[in-house]
């Protein structure tokens, strides 16, 4: 019974504290004491109460524009959005900070954060990749502007991750044509993917799929075009084994090569 009473007192204490805390905060929002709002906004931010900090900063950001406090307000304002996972808004405000305060000690950091927000907002490979391209572009601008930055390695690492998304989307799109039986489109798309991303981790499989697609394209061609396309298939076989002599696709590739050479004999 005594434990239950202590528990109820504890809960009542939390409710009372929360009520007075909220009441105090609401009074602060309605106050015209902008210096106090500024101080409490920073205090809330440092306590990781980003919601309240942001609300106060929104109240004073226009009041202190052009003053010595404007830089710090803009800096915390961007980070409040960031910590609340509002990455589109955060990215915009980080970039706006860099434009407004180009000589600030925080400018380099904010330019990196702007690019990082694009990274965080980039969709998975099956979806639209326009933000991924924008993230790569923004990181590259950062690298060009700050070649000696401590964040260069991180920027390059994130670019690699973004490029992998693009490579994966390109690879999957090309494979889709093959699965749909459109072998001409598949061949064009697979080769385009290889040209655009020559160092892709999908390179071995792309070369194999080009071989397979060329063979299926040849096999389904009219007689007068089949010979030339079978010869192209054999060329693609050599392209694969020259680069990957121990390819995991070697057995299937050899079967395609054997069938292609046998079919070619019919033209001699």
3D architecture notes:
By secondary structure, the chain is mainly α. It has helices at 2-30, 34-46, 50-60, 70-83, 87-100, 107-121, 130-145, 152-179, 183-196, 203-219, 223-243, 250-265. 78% of the residues lie in helices and 0% in strands. The chain starts with a helix and ends with a helix.
Rg for CA atoms: 30 Å
Which bin fits the share of residues in helices?
A: over 70%
Strand coverage percent: under 5%
Name the average pLDDT: 91
Give me the strand/helix succession: HHHHHHHHHHHH
Characterize the biggest β-sheet.
none
Give the SSE map:
Elements: H1 2-30, H2 34-46, H3 50-60, H4 70-83, H5 87-100, H6 107-121, H7 130-145, H8 152-179, H9 183-196, H10 203-219, H11 223-243, H12 250-265
In short:
The chain has helices at residues 2-30, 34-46, 50-60, 70-83, 87-100, 107-121, 130-145, 152-179, 183-196, 203-219, 223-243, 250-265. It has 268 residues and is mainly alpha-helical. Helix 3 runs antiparallel to helix 4 (70-83), helix 4 (70-83) packs antiparallel against helix 5 (87-100) and helix 7 runs antiparallel to helix 8 (152-179).
């Amino acid at each position: 019974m005594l434990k239950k009473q202590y528990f109820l007192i504890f809960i009542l204490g939390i409710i009372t504290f929360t009520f007075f805390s909220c009441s105090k905060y609401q009074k602060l929002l309605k106050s015209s004491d902008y210096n106090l709002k500024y101080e409490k906004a920073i205090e809330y931010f440092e306590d990781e109460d980003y919601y309240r900090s942001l609300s106060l900063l929104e109240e004073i950001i226009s009041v202190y524009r052009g003053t010595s406090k404007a830089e710090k307000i803009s800096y915390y304002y961007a980070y409040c959005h960031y910590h609340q996972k509002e990455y589109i808004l955060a990215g915009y405000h980080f970039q706006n900070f860099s434009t407004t305060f180009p000589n600030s000690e925080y400018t380099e950091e904010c330019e990196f954060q702007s690019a990082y927000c694009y990274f965080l907002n980039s969709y998975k490979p099956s979806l639209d990749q326009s933000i991924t391209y924008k993230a790569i572009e923004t990181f590259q601008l950062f690298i060009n502007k700050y070649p000696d930055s401590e964040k260069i390695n991180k920027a390059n690492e994130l670019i690699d991750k973004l490029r992998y998304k693009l490579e994966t989307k390109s690879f999957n799109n090309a494979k889709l044509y093959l699965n749909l039986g459109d072998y001409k489109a598949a061949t064009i798309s697979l080769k385009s993917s290889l040209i655009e991303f020559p160092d892709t981790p999908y390179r071995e499989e792309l070369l194999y799929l080009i071989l397979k697609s060329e063979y299926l394209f040849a096999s389904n061609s009219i007689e007068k075009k089949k010979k030339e396309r079978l010869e192209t298939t054999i060329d693609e076989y050599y392209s694969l084994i020259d680069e990957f002599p121990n390819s995991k696709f070697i057995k299937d590739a050899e079967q395609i090569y054997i069938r292609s050479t046998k079919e070619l004999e019919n033209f001699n």
